[in-house]
Design a protein that fits this description.
CATH class: Alpha Beta
Number of domains: 1
Number of strands: 14
Strand order of the largest sheet: 4-5-8-7-9-13
Radius of gyration: 17 Å
Distance between the termini: 23 Å
Order of helices and strands: EEEHEEEEEHHEEHEEHEE
Strand content: 25-35%
Structural class: alpha+beta
CATH superfamily: CNF1/YfiH-like putative cysteine hydrolases
CATH architecture: 4-Layer Sandwich
CATH topology: CNF1/YfiH-like putative cysteine hydrolases
Helix content: 10-25%
Length: 233
Amino acid sequence: MSKDKNDFKFVTPNWIVPDHVCALQTIRNYSDKSSFSKTNKIKDNAGLKFLRSNKKGLNQLHSNIAVQIPSENIDADASYTYQKNTVCVVKTADCMPILVTNEEGSFVSAIHAGWRGLSSGIIENTVRNIKSLSNLIVWIGPHISQKYFEVGAEVKKIFLDNDSANTVAFDRRENKKYLLSLKTVVEIKFNKMGIKNIYCMDNFCTYANSDIFFSYRRGDINERMSSLVWINK
């Protein structure tokens, strides 16, 4: 866990990737409950420079659009790049951030995955566009857990119409609503693509861990966390 001189609080993803692939996850605050990967290295890098610059990043629309960056088109919910020191970033506060690279570290990608994007194919479109020739490595960042993510029957129908295997991601409540596991949906999708190197942040629930994360459903309407990944020089 580290703190930048500009007071950005961040952790490093707990995934095993090539040394030249770098990533940061900003958080609300630190907590004794957290079991993040620790780092004492606070260096000037592309990720911190991006945060300090106040650049906007993508104009996230809950879509299934992925763009290769640099690009003038930022209306998308995923970005990917093959260029060094070009930062892919998504911002979330209950939706799931997903970072992706491969065994060679020949590209990096950041995906904003809410239920709308997941149901309309944001993961599939991103992976298809990247066209990686080697095994992918995935990191799932902080997002709302199934225990706190209530959705209606219409949301369940959308997912099951796309893939009946998604039924295991829903638990029915007495009020005829459902609790949805975004993590289960994502794992089903990646497993069907043959992707096995899937890592997930510990204590990832944004809603439950109010001392660590921002959560839209808990009332953090205007606050977001950033998930950044880039290829170092």
